[in-house]
Amino acid sequence: MKRIFLITILIFSTLSAFSFSFDKIRFFDEKTDTTTINGILSKTHEANFATPNERVGFIARQFLGLPYVAHTLEGDNEMLTINTSQLDCTTFVETVIALAYTVGEGGTSWRDYAKNLERIRYRDGNLDGYASRLHYISDWIINNSSRNNFSEVTKQIPNASNITKTINFMSTHRDSYKSLADNDEYAKILDVEKRFVSHQYPYIKKINIRNKSTSNALKDGDIIALTTKMNGLDVSHMGLIAIVDGVPHLMHASMKAMKVIIDPLPLYKYLNNSKSLTGIRVIRLNQ
């Protein structure tokens, strides 16, 4: 009798936890999103890739041609937005990582994916309001790396160097963020930014990307953050490395093309064509 009681408690606890998690989810289209996620998880499991990078590269290519749409995470209340039909540069990367991470730990359901998306997108893996989202990529990298979700490998790439910047773009452009009209959320963002005064982080200058030792060290499926010279901001764009004929290209949700593409320009040319971009940071999934 005691054993049955304990099992009942465990089942009830599991269902309660799932119910709470489900209440936090905002789908673009529940049937489409869940079907897409389950389908990609199944295909990736069947492919049985040898490395996390191979898995990431395969999953990313499932989204080629998908429309670029900005600001899909914004709403009146912060929720775990799941949208596999419209992506911007950040949600493209987060969607791919969460799917790849789910496969790596043996998950097969969109519910497993939802848990991992929250794990990657929010501070310490816990959605707790607008400011709990890891808005700055430096913050995103540090927080996820501390939980062993992925690792930054920029320093391991030949010709890496460091830069020091104060990251405070959101507070200095408060009017650009609807949620920062709330004084409590604004105060929380200010608190986050205090950690990034004169923040030093590694990057690879765009002039070095064409260097053979540097380009050869980049792998298909690497996650890259494109650093910027904009005041108060560390990273202005994200994507993944796609190796085409031995040359690194940027696979990304492109505002210019208005869809997810493998950019026709080699990565070094893409970077050199932008006056505001300064280089890249490189991240790899651990499992």
First CA to last CA: what distance?
41 Å
| Series of H and E elements | HEHHEHHHEEHHEHEEEEHE
CATH H-level superfamily title of the largest domain: putative xylanase like domain
* Helicity level: 40-55%
Largest sheet: 8 strands, antiparallel
What's the rounded overall pLDDT mean? Answer: 93
Q: For the record, what CATH class of the largest domain applies?
A: Mainly Beta
Task: Give the overall silhouette.
Answer: globular
**Which structural category do the helix and sheet elements fall into?**
alpha+beta
- Please identify, by name, the CATH architecture of the largest domain: Roll
Low-confidence stretches: 1-20
Strand content: 15-25%
- CATH fold-level name of the largest domain: putative xylanase like fold
Number of domains: 2
Number of H- or I-type helical stretches: 10
* Number of beta strands: 10
Computed over alpha carbons, the radius of gyration is 19 Å
Note the main attributes of this structure.
single chain; 287 residues; alpha+beta; Putative xylanase fold; putative xylanase like fold; 2 domains; eight-stranded antiparallel sheet; two-stranded parallel sheet; 40% helix; globular
